[in-house]
Automatic annotation (TrEMBL), chain A:
Organism name: Caloramator proteoclasticus DSM 10124
UniProt keyword list: Membrane, Transmembrane, Transmembrane helix
Pfam families: SpoVAC_SpoVAEB
Full protein name: Stage V sporulation protein AE
Keyword Acyltransferase in record: no
Transmembrane portions of the chain: 6-22, 29-48, 93-112
Automatic annotation (TrEMBL), chain B:
Keyword Secreted listed: no
Transmembrane portions of the chain: 31-54, 61-82, 88-105, 125-149
Organism expressing this protein natively: Caloramator proteoclasticus DSM 10124
Highest taxon listed in the record's lineage: Bacteria
Pfam families: SpoVAC_SpoVAEB
Name the UniProt record assigns to this protein: Stage V sporulation protein AC
Automatic annotation (TrEMBL), chain C:
Pfam families membership: SpoVAD
Record organism: Caloramator proteoclasticus DSM 10124
Domain of life: Bacteria
Protein name (record): Stage V sporulation protein AD
InterPro entries: SpoVAD, SpoVAD_sf, Thiolase-like
NCBIfam families hit by this protein: PRK08304.1 (NF006160), PRK12404.1 (NF009069), spore_V_AD (TIGR02845)
An example Gene Ontology molecular-function term: acyltransferase activity
Length: 118, 153, 338
């Protein structure tokens, strides 16, 4: 059941991205930026939380989930430590993804070379 | 007179371009994005359930999922597979966190030939940098607003 | 007004220079295309034994020049000038390619119009009496163009149907006052035309008005029409840009539908090779002309052609600053006998 929900929720979020890509001339980079920002806003006003509860990985794996984690982490830290939490919370909550991307990016760059497309 | 004539020509031409534009295969694109995007999330769910099964607390499991998914995206990019998935799936492989990883790893690999500092190090964020800038900045704003609202409670 | 000028933008040569030799080198994908048998060399590997895409592109251009000279009885030191260009910043591929030749060098940037731009200037130098042997050469490489203008190769993006595929290839032509053709009889130098297209994934549409403008100007200046040519062929408009050009020219009363084509369509099999709207890049018209068309003229299958290489004069900076894409097109009329 988890899997079916993840599939439907995740697929739908990607579908929205595809519609934006085909119907507007938004570049992938702009779509990523809008999605992460949308995730932060939806997370902050509490709309994304029920989506995560329903779709689990289907909602956290797509980029709005990254935005949601940023917002949720920030709010948690503000509650705990006050204003400084606005600066510490977001990155703390998403630290694993960011550090992994930088580290694995570097490793892959050492190991692999780009290949010509055909 | 000459000027307005030129404007008219431009307008006419732009309409002509719209009329002649080949339509992308919209339904196929959407289906591919939905299926591939959904499938990547299913893999994410599998990873999540796996670590939950190992006894990782629910609030920490996101770290594991993010790390593994980012690794998968990075590795498939390194192997030269992810760009082919992207060609087929479009947003289906751009929007998941594996796509975020791809957008960091692809320039890192590409600009290796310009060296490891100004090539790999500096170019790594040419595509994904804005995601961090806007994501983190907006979360800071959310934090500040939340703090102010709490002051008045 | 110069005595050899006719009309507003055209030169009719008094002593039409001959194209005495050409050479074309194509990448692996181009080597699988319909023109595969016409290229002098087809690369097995996009890196051409080099470490970077840029160096590979440069080596292709250097080899194209060497092969074009090899077919002649003349030596490198007999060459008076080389006019060369490519798509890379500061003309990296051309500058490095000519580094080892001891030939006076003019570097040109006309985006994908560089082939006919260099042929035009080379012909003027020859007909003007400033040179006896001049080389015109250009190159492009899919991988070096992608990383400069678009995305890293491994980035998983989707190409829209209007997008084109930068040709990996280099072509060189030796243009001389001595020789028995094919002759360059006229050149029509294009103006920059910009009809406000901003989509860098639709360069065919951005360049079509420039191509049509130059073709119509050529007809007006020379008094010729499309019926005077066996073939009118643009550089890299692709399917989208080609249809637009046909339509604009038709509105002015010239129906070119029977003898008009585009190098970007000729070089790939559009149904099989996943190149969307067709080929593009400096190398596109370079390998199609230096490989295929030149041989067709030599064998007598074509007697008189009008070659119009087309360029989209955008840069990554201009695109990011929201500028529309200026187009350019230069026409060269080539004839088997005069």
């Amino acid at each position: 059941m988890d899997y079916l929900r993840a599939f439907i929720v995740g697929g739908t979020i990607c579908l929205i991205g595809q519609i934006l890509m085909d119907k507007t001339s938004l570049t992938p980079a702009r779509i990523l930026v809008s999605f992460v920002t949308a995730g932060v806003i939806l997370g902050a006003i509490g709309i994304y939380e029920p989506i995560v509860e329903y779709g689990k990985a289907g909602a956290t794996v797509p980029l709005p989930g990254f935005g949601y984690s940023l917002a949720k982490g920030t709010i948690k830290e503000v509650e705990k430590y006050g204003l400084i939490g606005a600066f510490t919370g977001g990155i703390k909550a998403t630290s694993a993804g960011i550090a992994a991307a930088i580290f694995f990016g570097y490793i892959m760059a050492i190991i692999f070379n780009p290949k010509a497309k055909s | 007179m000459e000027h307005t004539n030129e404007e008219r020509l431009k307008k006419e031409f732009q309409d002509m371009v719209k009329k002649n534009a080949p339509s992308s295969n919209f339904l196929k694109d959407c289906l591919a994005a939905f299926v591939v995007g959904g499938f990547i999330c299913v893999i994410g769910q599998f990873v999540m359930n796996f670590f939950l099964g190992l006894g990782v607390p629910k609030e920490d499991v996101g770290y594991y999922v993010a790390t593994i998914m980012v690794f998968l995206g990075a590795f498939l990019t390194g192997l030269g597979v992810y760009d082919n998935i992207g060609k087929f799936a479009g947003a289906g492989s751009i929007v998941p966190i594996t796509g975020f990883s791809n957008s960091i790893v692809a320039p890192a690999m590409e600009f290796k030939r310009e060296g490891f500092v100004f090539g790999v190090g500096a170019k790594m964020f040419v595509i994904a940098g804005p995601v961090l800038v806007y994501g983190i900045s907006s979360s800071v704003i959310v934090g500040i607003i939340y703090y102010i609202i709490n002051l008045f409670k | 007004m110069g005595e050899k000028r006719i009309g507003e933008q055209t030169i009719a040569f008094k002593n039409p220079p001959s194209i005495i030799s050409t050479a074309a080198i194509a990448g692996p994908k181009e080597g699988e295309g319909p023109l595969r048998d016409y290229f002098d060399v087809v690369l097995e590997d996009d890196l051409f034994g080099e470490e970077t895409w840029e160096k590979a592109e440069s080596k292709m251009q250097k080899e194209a020049v060497r092969l074009a000279l090899e077919k002649l009885k003349i030596d490198e030191k007999d060459i008076d000038y080389i006019f060369a260009g490519d798509l890379l910043n500061q003309l990296m591929a051309s500058s490095l390619a000519v580094r080892d030749y001891k030939i006076p060098f003019f570097g040109l940037y006309g985006a994908c119009s560089t082939l006919t731009e260099s042929m035009s200037l080379a012909s003027m130098a020859v007909d003007g009496g400033y040179a006896d042997y001049v080389i015109a050469s250009t190159s492009s490489h899919f991988c070096s163009a992608e990383r400069q203008f678009r995305f890293p190769l491994e980035h998983g993006n989707q190409r829209p149907p209007t997008s084109q595929w930068t040709v990996t290839g280099a072509g060189a032509a030796v243009i001389s006052s001595k020789g028995n053709g094919p002759y360059i009889t006229h050149v029509t130098t294009g103006r920059v035309v910009d009809f406000g297209i901003k989509d860098a994934n639709n360069m065919g549409a951005a360049m079509a008005p420039a191509a049509a403008d130059t073709i119509l100007r050529h007809f007006k200046d020379t008094g010729r029409t499309n019926k005077d040519y066996d073939l009118i062929i643009t550089g890299d408009l692709g399917k989208v840009g080609m249809e637009l050009t046909l339509e604009i020219v038709k509105k002015q009363g010239f129906d070119m539908s029977t003898n008009y084509s585009d190098c970007g369509i000729k070089v790939f099999d559009l149904t099989q090779q996943d190149v969307h709207s067709g080929g593009s890049g400096c190398g596109c018209s370079a390998i199609v002309f230096c490989g295929y068309l030149y041989k067709q003229i030599m064998e007598g299958n074509l007697n008189r052609i009008l070659l119009i290489s087309t360029g989209a004069l955008l840069s990554p900076t201009s695109t990011m600053q929201g500028e529309s894409i200026p187009g350019i097109a230069h026409a060269v009329a080539i004839e088997r006998g005069v």
